[in-house]
From TrEMBL:
This is Alpha 1,4-glycosyltransferase domain-containing protein. PANTHER family: ALPHA 1,4-GLYCOSYLTRANSFERASE FAMILY PROTEIN (PTHR46781). Residues 297-419 form the Alpha 1,4-glycosyltransferase domain. It comes from Gossypium arboreum. InterPro entries: A1-4-GlycosylTfrase_dom, GlycoTrfase_DXD_sugar-bd_CS, Nucleotide-diphossugar_trans, Put_A1-4-GlycosylTfrase_plant. Gene3D superfamilies: 3.90.550.20. The lineage of its organism: Eukaryota, Viridiplantae, Streptophyta, Embryophyta, Tracheophyta.
Length: 424
């Protein structure tokens, strides 16, 4: 007798028996056929799932055009636990599309719980935030400046460096802190090192967002946002986080907040509790809109607290500017003239001397003698009347600085590293 083992099942086969071999052969064929059928079913199931996913992506891609009135600003990024999510990513666009479809068909209000963004979290690095702020500004700083950067470190480019340079051109003894988790890194240090090598006081610090909003009206807003009770909307969240962060850091510490697309032209030392008008009525000369790209306020100023309160109570992530320029305009319109709110509103020439629609003209070279004269007059006017120029990055980020243009003159006059003048 001879024993053969198949799948650990003993089968006793008489030696040299044709019938036994036929039975064995049939058993093997049956097992192979069964395995093939199971495999095919699994493959077809996977293919069907992939097909469904593909169709879902195609549907989202098609519906991106339904909400055509949504205005998306420049690409901004937010760090998640392990990934960098780009503000213009397909994932975010699909969320915009989904919202558009739901609104179009009246399928209730779209709400989603935010992922655990790093900016919302406290860790060993961010827990040092308060101590690092106090230590940094305890260095004989002429003026305390803040910027925010909630984007990839690699996108902190020449324009942003120019903004930092211009701060130190007008404030050699000033201190600039960039609130940014991504810039608070080895790569961020390398970007800022040329300024550090010249002795300027600049640092990137990962902010402790929960600490900054603690004991302010924004604390409840953050809790609602993290729990999914509040809709973040379709506007990139980084933009609105920057709108809030500038307010809470000024309320906690006081100082000057600047956008990173701003060229400083003169000292801010004489400014106190100041906000700038973006536009005025040509007849009455009264302001029609304010902007929050530049804010100068003392610590615990009541107007800044009102800004934070308005942000938290009226937050709308689906309207561009609602939580920024329009928000500060709403608040100031309500409190202007009331006792206890001492602040100054400067005319557009102070910070916004060129409207965003016309900013491209500053980048153009003169075409004739009249053009050259206009550029000279404009440069002299800005030097006399302007604290700095907001570049309206959304409109001008792709523009090239042409030789002989107003922008070329401004960059050359207000830089300290003075590299790459002819690129934006």
């Amino acid at each position: 007798m001879m024993t053969a083992k198949i799948f650990v099942c003993p089968v006793v086969i008489p030696a040299k028996s044709p019938v036994a071999f036929m039975i064995l052969f049939a058993l093997l064929m049956f097992l192979m056929l069964t395995d093939s059928i199971v495999s095919n079913i699994s493959l077809e199931s996977a293919a069907f799932t992939q097909k469904e996913d593909s169709q879902s992506l195609q549907t989202l891609t098609v519906t991106r055009n339904i909400k055509s009135d949504v205005v998306l600003p420049l690409s901004l990024t937010v760090s998640t636990k392990n990934n960098i999510v780009d503000g213009n990513s397909e994932h975010q666009n699909s969320l915009v599309s989904s919202l558009g479809v739901r609104e179009k068909h009246g399928i209730g209000k779209f709400r989603r719980k935010l992922p655990e963004h790093e900016i919302f979290m406290s860790d060993e690095l961010t827990k040092k935030f308060h101590g690092r702020v106090l230590e940094f500004f305890n260095r004989g700083c002429e003026v305390h400046f803040f910027m925010t950067w909630i984007s990839k470190v690699g996108s902190f480019g020449r324009r942003e460096i120019l903004a930092a340079e211009s701060v130190f051109k007008s404030h050699p003894n000033g201190c600039l802190m960039i609130l940014s988790r991504t810039m608070d890194s080895v790569q961020g240090y390398r970007i800022l090192k040329p300024l550090l090598d010249l002795g300027f006081k600049v640092i990137a610090v990962a902010p402790d967002f929960p600490f900054l909003v603690k004991n302010t009206p924004a604390e409840a807003w953050l809790d609602d946002m993290k729990s999914g009770k509040k809709d973040p909307g379709v506007i990139p969240l980084a933009q609105n986080l920057s709108n809030l962060m500038r307010l809470v850091v000024l309320y906690k510490y006081g100082g000057v907040y600047l956008d990173t697309d701003f060229i400083v032209m003169r000292s801010f030392k004489g400014l106190k509790n100041t906000i700038g008008a973006q536009s005025i009525d040509v007849v009455s000369k009264n302001w029609t809109r304010l902007n929050n790209a530049v804010l100068v306020f003392d610590m615990k100023h009541p107007l800044v607290l009102k800004f934070i309160e308005e942000f938290a109570l009226t937050f709308d992530g689906n309207k561009w500017g609602h939580n920024g320029p329009y928000m500060v305009s709403r608040v100031v319109r309500r409190v202007e003239g009331r006792p206890g709110y001492n602040f100054t509103i400067l005319p557009p020439m102070a910070f916004y001397p060129v409207d965003w629609i016309k900013i491209g003209g500053l980048f153009k070279m003169p075409k004739d003698r009249a053009g050259s004269r206009w550029i000279e007059v404009k440069v002299q006017q800005l030097k006399r009347q302007t604290y700095g120029v907001h570049l309206w990055n959304k409109q001008s980020s792709k523009l090239v600085v042409e030789e002989g243009s107003v922008m070329e003159r401004l960059m050359a006059q207000n830089c300290v590293l003075c590299k790459h003048i002819y690129s934006s």
